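Example record

The entry below shows one chain as it appears in the dataset: sequence first, then structure tokens.
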Amino acid sequence: MKIGKLIGYNETTKRMDDNSLFLKQPYKLFTSTIDDSDYEDISSIEKWDNSNLLDWARRRDEIVPLFYGEAGQSLENFAGMSIEKKLIACKYFLIPYAIRMQLITDTEDAENWDFLLGQTKSSRISCVEAMRIKVGQYMRLGSISLADTQDFYKSVYEYIIWFDDCNAPDFKQWLTNEVGSPYENTGFEQKSYFDSNMRDDLMDIYNGDY
């Protein structure tokens, strides 16, 4: 995903440079490319860290490829990165413990870890709730019945608990009939009420678009 900033918006003054009224929101998420000429791409490790456009865990997902793209997969370029980026790497646990201890204390590291565990679980719970609401919309429109939604919930109940508590992949594997998984032939597609649009909508939510 990309962070777009409204062209002319001053991040320091929180106003447009020409003091005009906001015609659009100052910041906007774009799925892949900035396809609105009124916005410029400001996506970066630091901007994602400071953003509130996604929940904490989804922001981490966006930071990961940017960080390793600059630091290198084996951290061969890490030493040359700014101290701000190095501390962000500590915050999101993108570098080994031994390297983190060169930058922060063990107490700070433990606090960061507790925060990460809390935020990632909160993110997964929010994700599941957004999915529940989306499925409810399909029922509202008459695409599926109440009995269908109840069966859907019962079918994934255990997988959702595993997902919430430890980020187990079973829920995603069931939803997508992931090839090679235990649910390749016993997942969502085998339900009488299977709808590829609903699956795609739920996967968009799973991937952070909510």
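Notes for this example: The mean pLDDT is 93. The two ends are 13 Å apart (CA to CA).
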